[in-house]
Amino acid sequence: MISRRIIRTKVLQVLYAYYSTDEKSINNTEKELFFCIHKAYDLYHYLFSLVTEIADYAEGRIEIRRNKHQPTHEDLHPNTKFISNQLIQQLRNNRQLEAYLDQKKLNWKDHPELIKELYLMMIESDMYKEYMADKTRSYLNDRKFIEKLFNKIILVSEDLYILLEEKSIYWNDDVEFVISMIVKTLKRFNELSDSDQSLMPLYKDQEDRDFTKELLRKAIINHDELRTLIREHSRNWDVERIAFMDILIMQLAITEFLYFPTIPTKVSLNEYIELSKFYSTEKSRNFINGILDKTLKDLKRTEKINKEGRGLIGE
Questions:
Q1: Where does CATH 1.10.940.10 sit in the chain?
Q2: How far apart are alpha carbons 58 and 70 in whole angstroms?
Q3: Which of 87, 88, 160, 262 has the fewest CB atoms within 10 Å, measured from its CB?
Q4: Which class does domain 222-301 fall in?
């Protein structure tokens, strides 16, 4: 589930915290890194369960109307297309989702107002009205509606962000990414998916987990060499006046240039320039790009870049 870009982002954030505190413990920083990544995985399952909560609320509303003292024809014959959505039923029965939520004790029972708000946002939306008015039923139609529910209702709920920020300092920045991973997961479901349908693993493979650990450690252990390279290639700038986050972005990029032989330098350069779009100003981005480009050319000229693997030798 966790992409290399998110790993790089998390390492950058934890590295910033490492240098901002008096206590410099690599082991504790590494634990913090893996903890915040696992929190993103918690959020992945937690947000998944929102859909069934909204469906439960909708079903409860239908029952209340049915049991009115003088129910209308519409009250007695409601449109149940949403609450009988085939994908929602699959999520209700998914063993992996249920087991994870139980283990982590993740539920929405203390937040009925949020569930109500999301439900009201949903039923007032054009996408819901179009979905409910369509008399045809298909699995693909049901799945696409749930994807829209995540992207157009859950993702934009301000109250959801406020609640998540209160529950965990790690969650607010992860919502957009996590929902994109949820939508990717939903696309793996089909009408034959049973209760054992798998969700995404935390890491794609062991290599990604190792990359997480090594990127942090190599950036810290080789601090002096990396900062020297940054200083050498920004001679016309006062390093003390360069934004601290900009320095960390360059430090991580150069770490990958030097110590990750299987990652193409072009990939590392592009990834950290992309990262700078979120953590630096436009002026800083141009500066970072220029310094990294100069550093990379010099490292290649002095043959300090040693890449290995198919298509990378002699890069």
A1: 222-301
A2: 20
A3: 262
A4: mainly alpha
